[in-house]
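Consider the tokenized backbone below.
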């Protein structure tokens, strides 16, 4: 097995084998490269390749918690400009595998595991060992988790060995699986190339460019792979948010109609209940059609007389930290700048519009200054310690502003990420939540910049336990904010079902908290107490069992049992769906149950166990 990288320059030949238009690998640019330093082994080090004409590739490999971080640096030491149309982060050849695992994702349906055999993917080699078999997949646009997560695992059933890969790509990305002359596969990944992502980039003489990072892991099971990939992530968690604290968001309480009075009412109800953050969601700005006012960020003083400081101070007086929602990268039709093209993302010279939204050009210094005033100064002046940053549509294939649509897109999104860093530099303790209509940005480069992320927009659906459990596979549960929306009409069993789902990540309450009966509140507080007892396992543990055999997400059937372990203690969570049966974890002999929550005695109920070995 080899780990290396590939590049293709414009004008050089494409590979044959009926592959042109499906892959840009093995093109003419690679013909003259030779390895001059390092190795292509699965080990830390730098492999350096030169082509004799001044072009240098360096594949940099770094060990990290049992995984291998890989990136490619290309340098143009020639005396002429070169234009790239492909640069991989990695290529692995000689991969023995008969199964491929991927994670699919759509809005409110994030993280669904898809497992296929090589035969089912139609990747078996031909009778003549000719004609490339290619599976190329990824995402195009500024929402990197759409259709697929940037993840792949290849499994060899005969040896029991797996290789897992996770890309750190904030915008367009691709992965490829190829088979031709041998049964062993070649797998590559990185930025979307010219064919897939409309990407080309010019390298001036003396210039260099670094690919997005990829993290590779080996293991004996998918549990090993997911655990090593997640533990190789190093998010920049706020120092005030490293304790798995519970939060409350008022969106499913007011549905976009927050006021001083109703938020204060929530704060009164939650005082003394162990809630750390109260987050005011959309609707605090503009007027009654606030969704058309994105971008101006003027407080609705009918809802919040005198501005937002009074409600932030009130929340703090109740012992909690105030948070607030922004969608800072976009603007809507009634924003004063909506029809001013100077500071907007454009395509073909025209402001790019998706639905009712247009996009700020985050590379524009004027935009950075404007948002620094409207967002960062606002947070400081009003005493907010938490910001939820939403993002509710995608730029798509690319935009104007660079030598290609795809390169301009990459630069605009990187500028957005730099603004996140600016927020943290100016307010070091701020808690940043990543939301993109739920989970469209749940990939590691975005997650590295934030403390938490909204896991999905599936706020009140019975699908929540499936989505929440699946997301443990690719992001840290410490960052994965799982909503528990409570209603006055909820049965005790329904409350248990919703509360138990938060055991897959960070507990976030919403809904009709002041309409609950004493009995209902007692159940919510019981769930909160169980969550606190299990928090260290959720945060630090490894999932060792994840059973859900059916494929349906929208109308789940059967049951799901997930077991997570850390330092001799286990957390088991059962959710029952339609047509389910009661199951229990396999308690090893001598184990001791420390706590239980829920009944799990019928369809659409739940039960959780905390036990030590």
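A designed sequence for it:
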């Amino acid at each position: 097995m080899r780990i290396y990288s590939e590049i293709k320059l414009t004008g050089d030949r494409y590979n044959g084998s009926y592959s042109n238009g499906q892959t840009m690998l093995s093109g003419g640019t690679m013909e003259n490269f030779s390895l001059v330093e390092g190795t292509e082994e699965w080990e830390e080090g730098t492999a350096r390749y030169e082509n004799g004409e001044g072009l240098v590739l360096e594949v940099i490999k770094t060990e990290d918690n049992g995984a291998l971080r890989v990136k490619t640096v290309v340098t143009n030491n020639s005396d002429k400009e070169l234009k790239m149309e492909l640069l991989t982060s990695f290529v692995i050849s000689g991969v023995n595998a008969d199964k491929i695992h991927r994670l699919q994702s759509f809005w409110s349906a994030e993280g669904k595991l898809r497992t296929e055999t090589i035969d089912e993917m139609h990747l078996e080699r031909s009778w003549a060992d000719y004609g490339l078999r290619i599976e190329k997949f990824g995402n195009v646009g500024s929402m990197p988790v759409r259709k697929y997560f940037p993840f792949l695992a290849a499994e060899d059933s005969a040896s029991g060995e797996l290789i897992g890969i996770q890309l750190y790509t904030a915008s367009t990305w691709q992965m490829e699986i190829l088979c031709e002359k041998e049964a062993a596969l070649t797998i590559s990944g990185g930025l979307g190339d010219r064919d897939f992502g409309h990407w080309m980039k010019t390298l001036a003489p003396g210039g260099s460019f670094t690919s997005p990072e990829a993290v590779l892991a080996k293991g004996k099971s998918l549990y090993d792979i997911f655990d090593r990939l997640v533990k190789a992530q190093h998010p920049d968690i706020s120092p005030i948010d490293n304790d798995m604290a519970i939060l409350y968001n008022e969106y499913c309480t007011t549905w976009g109609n927050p006021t001083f009075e109703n938020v204060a009412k929530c704060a009164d109800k939650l005082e003394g209940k162990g809630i750390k953050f109260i987050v005011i969601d959309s609707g605090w700005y503009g007027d009654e059609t606030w969704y058309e006012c994105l971008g101006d960020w003027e407080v609705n003083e009918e809802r919040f007389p005198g501005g937002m400081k009074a409600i932030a101070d009130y929340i703090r007086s109740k012992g909690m930290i105030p948070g607030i929602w922004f969608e800072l990268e976009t603007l809507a039709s009634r924003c004063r700048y909506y029809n001013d093209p100077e500071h907007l993302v454009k395509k073909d010279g025209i402001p790019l519009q998706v639905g009712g939204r247009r996009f700020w050009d985050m590379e524009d210094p004027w935009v950075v200054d404007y948002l620094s005033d409207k967002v960062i100064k606002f947070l400081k002046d009003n005493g907010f310690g938490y910001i939820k940053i939403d993002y509710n549509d995608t730029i798509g294939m690319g935009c104007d502003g660079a030598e290609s649509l795809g390169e301009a897109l990459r630069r605009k999104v990187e500028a957005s990420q730099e603004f996140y860093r600016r927020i943290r530099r100016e307010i070091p303790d701020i808690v940043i939540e990543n939301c993109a209509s739920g989970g469209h940005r749940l990939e590691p480069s975005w997650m590295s910049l934030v403390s938490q992320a909204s896991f999905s927009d599936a706020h009140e659906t019975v699908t929540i336990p499936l989505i929440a459990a699946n997301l443990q596979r690719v992001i840290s549960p410490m960052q994965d904010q799982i909503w528990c929306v409570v209603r006055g009409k909820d049965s005790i069993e329904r409350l248990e079902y919703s509360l138990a789902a938060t055991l897959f990540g960070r507990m976030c309450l919403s809904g009709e908290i002041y309409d609950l009966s004493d009995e209902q509140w007692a159940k919510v507080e019981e769930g909160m107490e169980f969550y606190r007892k299990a928090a260290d396992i959720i945060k630090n543990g490894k999932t060792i069992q994840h059973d859900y055999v059916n494929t349906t997400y929208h109308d789940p059937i059967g049951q799901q049992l997930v077991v997570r372990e850390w330092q001799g203690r286990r957390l088991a969570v059962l959710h029952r769906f339609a047509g389910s049966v009661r199951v229990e974890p396999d308690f090893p002999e001598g184990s001791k149950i420390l706590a239980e929550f829920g009944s799990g005695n019928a369809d659409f109920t739940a039960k959780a166990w905390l036990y030590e070995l």
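The radius of gyration is 25 Å.
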